[in-house]
Design goal:
Radius of gyration: 24 Å
Bound molecules: flavin mononucleotide
CATH topology of the largest domain: Pnp Oxidase, Chain A
CATH superfamily of the largest domain: Electron Transport, Fmn-binding Protein, Chain A
Helix content: 25-40%
Distance between the termini: 48 Å
Number of domains: 2
Amino acid sequence: MAYTDFQDFLTQLERAGELKKISREVDPVLEITEIADRVMKRDGGGTALLFEHPTGSTMPVAINTFGSRKRMSMALGVADFEDIASEIESLLQPDIPQGLWAAAREMLPKLAMLAKCPPKREKGPGRCQEVVLTGDDIDLNKFPILKCWPQDGGRYITLPLVFTHDPVTGKRNVGMYRVQVYDRNTVGMHWQMHKVGAEHARLRAERNEPIDVAIVLGGDPALTYSATAPLPPGIDEMLFAGFLRKKPVKLVSATSVDLEVPEDAEIVIEGKVDPVERRLEGPFGDHTGYYSLADMYPVVHITAITHRRKPVYPATIVGRPPMEDGWLGKATERLFLPLLRLTLPEIRDINLPVEGIFHNVALVSIKKRYPGHAFKVMHALWGLGQMMFTKMIFIFDETVNVQDVKECMWRMGNNIDPERDMCVVRGPVDVLDHASRAVGYGSKIGFDCTHKLAGEGFTREWPDVIEMSEEIRKQVDSYWHELGI
Ligand SMILES: Cc1cc2nc3c(=O)[nH]c(=O)nc-3n(C[C@H](O)[C@H](O)[C@H](O)COP(=O)(O)O)c2cc1C
């Protein structure tokens, strides 16, 4: 189901009992964080919150809107986001039925649905442009932008969809990169070196030209999720969002930069990034639960801000897990498993535990077929898009339930001879990794926790796992109720 906009999503959340409105005045400087953090840490992720009267602004702040399995699923318009993974799986590996007519009957609806997804360009102005601010009217101080944590370098826009174009191919990219407010019309852009927005800016800088950006807040929540999804460069996030919401995303021309923006957005900040200018950005209380250190990042000079007549300001906070972003990450883990399996069909399942901040720990089960198979899978994962950031990969046999971290700990401890079964490599690591020797460069480790084969030099017998026989289990089942235990 597609939402008409972010406020429609909030209405549906409220109807489902998933949104709590807070009418008292609350300060976006630290206080909203303290409240939201307590709610996000509740079992299951608490409710979404709408702060109707943030101090210093007329715009309500919505937070934790993606912060549970149910709300993440609602954001993508499904009962459970695992359903989308099954849909992707069936699209990628269609079982072509016997006979032409049967094939057509099965495949045509799927293809027709995909054909309906590309974004649609509409004649503006869009709903996101009901108010247009330029020149001296541009003033970010009027927006309820959060200062999240005490040592943060300033206020941060935390749920932004950053639109850019590849200057060579003209293709669009939309990524979620935090934005630090410097003053009323200047912000810092934290696109990390490995991300597509940063590459677009580098390509522009090679021509000594500024790059246009649009920092978008709101729109159908499928758009916001898509900005976080690790799609390969060149794959349009707005097409992906259209696939998720089963309806094209409507786009209109931005007012002062050469970009298209979602018609249904709440707020759009348009601007230009100078090819050489850098300014200290950070520190920022980050996904890792630590502050990411201040560093030099590009600066956006705002050329216009457009917004709804009565916008709601979407926000999140990141910090020590579990947090709202854990659910955005879990959706990615599930939705991208079928895509991983296109390259690595031996993968059965993957778990990126929230405590591992997604890039620190991956638990992977495989159908092991040959000597060294686990190592092959590790190396392949380190070569696949943003999986390159995974600091620790643990590979298990297909019988292991990698969603059960306790089982993984038990198997891992028993099944490895560390010297033989580990593999340390060097390469790119997440920019947020504060332990690595350099920003974005360090080492990663993989552990083969599978059973060992003779072809791997293992000459001993591999023991069976202890299990009661089915016959005895059934026998005890038959009189269990008599025991009163
Ligand atoms: C809440 C949230 C905040 C994020 N902040 C940043 C950020 O500041 N910089 C960054 O490079 N990636 C950040 N990310 C991760 C990117 O959004 C993610 O890697 C995305 O796939 C990047 O898109 P791209 O591949 O189009 O560059 C954030 C993700 C989330 C969920």
